[in-house]
Amino acid sequence: MKSRLFSITAVIVLTFIGFNAGYILGQSPLAPYHIFDSTTAARSETFAPFWEVWDLVHARYYEQPVDDVLLTQGAIEGMLAALGDAHTRYLSPEDESVARERMSGEFQGIGAEVESSNGDITIVSPIDGSPAQAAGLRPGDILRQANGVELTGMDVSEAAALVRGPAGTTVQLLIERNEETFTVDIVRDVIKLSSVRSEMLDDNIAYVRLSQFGDQSAQELEAQLTDLLAQNPVGLILDLRRNPGGGLDTAVAIADQFLPAGTILAERFGTGADKLFTSTDKGIAEEIPLVALIDEGSASASEVLAGAIQDRERGVLIGVTSFGKGTVQTWHALSNGGGVRITIARWLTPNENWVHETGVEPDFYVPLPDTANGEEFADTQLQAAVAYLLGKPVISTPPVEE
């Protein structure tokens, strides 16, 4: 009964949202006007069961009064979950606030990007300098419990709310990795997201670390690229490892710094129509020899950039296969302070490859060594990138297929 109520309520609620909040036409030429094409009589017939159930709940449910706000939010969550797309989801006002803070550059929590994968709350990537990274959490780790509360099967927003919290407080997580579980206590902190870090390495090689595609990332990158290129480096390493993505417009602006005029990606909508995103010939790093580092934590916008570099033969990719998120979402604010993310399209690389659930394959497969038993970490991927730019051989060791 409760599930049915949520689903039916969600239909009318989301229809109302779509009509009043609108569709972001800048993201897609396709607005879902077909929702409202039916006749008034047909709409009345479609929603008649909703009003019947609504009245029954308010008249017969054993605990009164019922919370209409809670039912409405649950209904939206239920409808979006019924689509079977982990990236189409509702954010409560609290979750919406956190998400916008994160994109603006600061929030409180453990500092890890998570997704729901077949009911498992899975880490996409810990954020650079975060408590999650300091605690040794890795892409692919599954969060089973937070302070004793089971997370498996939980909505990703609800699970994330249990994990995050005020700076200075502690959360105990039960982690599953490689079919083994362990607990870790992590002290939450204020996560400041300076998304670009750069330096000159030995042998006159420039290095840029891009940790997310946030609101200020394109400007930060341009400023630091300008400083690096003024030193006349022989090559450039772009580190996209553990970068969970971010805004599509930011990804396009950043790609334009590295690519000459041409295609960056295409959005493909349900009708088969495409929308192309292209680069200009005004980038400041279009000619310098380039290596991009990727790993299983490189997702979404990171894969857009890596895929364009690879397909356009602008540089080479070194590392391991990326996360595999090949869809585009719009971000809609709601009148209650919450928001919805709705998947509107697939995105394709310049060669029309769809990397969803498969990822971008590197040109040189270089895994990181196992750092168990307290051994000192050796960044073999970075070492391989340096070797490539110096003209030295790089050994690619792709995984053996099981």
Report on the structure:
- Strands 3, 4, 5, 6, 7 and 8 form a six-stranded antiparallel beta sheet that branches. A six-stranded mixed beta sheet has the order 10-11-12-15-16-19, sandwiched between helices. Strands 1, 13, 14, 17 and 18 form a five-stranded antiparallel beta sheet that branches.
- It folds into three domains: 2-82, no CATH class; 106-191, Roll (Pdz3 Domain); 194-329 and 344-389, Alpha-Beta Complex (2-enoyl-CoA Hydratase, Chain A, domain 1), CATH 3.90.226.10.
- The chain has helices at 2-21, 40-60, 68-82, 93-104, 131-134, 156-163, 217-229, 248-258, 301-311, 380-389, and strands at 89-91, 106-109, 112-117, 120-126, 142-146, 149-150, 170-177, 180-187, 189-192, 196-201, 205-210, 235-239, 262-268, 274-279, 290-294, 316-319, 327-333, 339-348, 364-365.
- It is 31% helix and 26% strand.
- It is an alpha+beta fold and 402 residues long.
- Residues 1-37 have low confidence and may be disordered.
- Helix 1 crosses helix 3 and helix 7 packs parallel to helix 8.
- Strand 13 (262-268) and strand 14 form a beta hairpin.
CATH class of the largest domain: Alpha Beta
Instruction: Find the structural class using helix and strand composition.
Output: alpha+beta
- Topology, number of strands: 19
CATH superfamily of the largest domain: 2-enoyl-CoA Hydratase, Chain A, domain 1
Number of domains: 3
> What is the radius of gyration computed over CA atoms, rounded to a whole number of angstroms?
23 Å
Net shape = globular
How much of the sequence lies in strands comes to 25-35%
Whole-number average pLDDT?
Answer: 86
Largest sheet: 6 strands, antiparallel
**Termini gap:** 44 Å
CATH architecture of the largest domain: Alpha-Beta Complex
Count of DSSP H/I helices: 10
Question: What is the N-to-C succession of helices and strands?
Answer: HHHEHEEEHEEHEEEEEHEHEEEHEEEEH
**CATH fold type of the largest domain:** 2-enoyl-CoA Hydratase, Chain A, domain 1
Helix content: 25-40%
Task: Enumerate the spans where pLDDT stays under 50 for 5 or more consecutive residues.
Answer: 1-37
